[in-house]
Amino acid sequence: MKVNPKEFLMNDIRPAIEEDAKILSAIRLQIDGETENLDREKGEAYIDELGFKQLIKDDAESSNLFLVAEAHKRIVGFSRCERNKLKRFSHKAEFGVCVLKEYWGYGIGKNLLKESIHWADSNGIKKINLSVLETNDKAIKLYKKYGFEVEGILKKDRVLSDGNYYNTILMGRFNE
């Protein structure tokens, strides 16, 4: 019997702490250079260690959710749910996730998503929004599996390294 090593990767999801800031800065920079699925190119909108410390502190104080994923005692990804501060939109949160390419396919993104949905449902958040590149089929399939629906398409929203324009899909999950 052939064993799939991916089945044995243990990963833990936990809240980010200020001591994670240095590694978060480094892995965000690395992830941005590994994929075009995200909004940024490597180095754009760079957040240094102090910036991440402040973000983690602000998130804790404002009831946002900032999670890190660990595999083999190493941070390999993270996600954030940012609540909308405006009263008319206070029922919503924006979700985003990043995972090192080396760790794609291990269920880390799925686990971060599941924890974020649980947090939202437990904290009175009625709607989670996200955006995803139209070519990111695996992510779109995952989001749909967890109750997200396509709410709109931003046509020719971004240009990638091949010089072509691609659509951004806007998705949302409403918890009644």
Fold topology:
Layout: E1 11-15, H1 21-34, H2 49-61, E2 65-71, E3 74-83, E4 92-99, H3 108-122, E5 127-133, H4 137-145, E6 149-159, E7 165-174
Parallel strand pairs: 4-5
Antiparallel strand pairs: 1-2, 2-3, 3-4, 5-7, 6-7
Helix pairs in contact: 1-2
Tell the overall outline: globular
User: Averaging pLDDT over every residue, what do you get?
Assistant: 92
The radius of gyration is 16 Å
Estimate the strand proportion.
25-35%
CATH architecture classification name of the domain at 5-126: 3-Layer(aba) Sandwich
Total count of helical runs of at least 4 residues: 4
> In sequence order, what are the helices and strands, one letter per element?
EHHEEEHEHEE
Give helix % range. 25-40%
Strand order of the largest sheet: 1-2-3-4-5-7-6
Distance linking N and C termini: 45 Å
CATH superfamily of the domain at 5-126: Gcn5-related N-acetyltransferase (GNAT)
Structural class by helix and strand composition: alpha+beta
Text of the CATH class of the domain at 5-126: Alpha Beta
Within the CATH hierarchy, at the fold level, what is the topology of the domain at 5-126?
Answer: Aminopeptidase
Could you list the spans in which at least 5 consecutive residues all have pLDDT below 50? none
DSSP E strands, number: 7
- Please summarize the sheet with the most strands: 7 strands, mixed
Keywords: Ribonucleoprotein, Ribosomal protein
GO molecular function: acyltransferase activity, transferring groups other than amino-acyl groups
Organism: Thermaerobacillus caldiproteolyticus
Pfam family, one: Acetyltransf_1
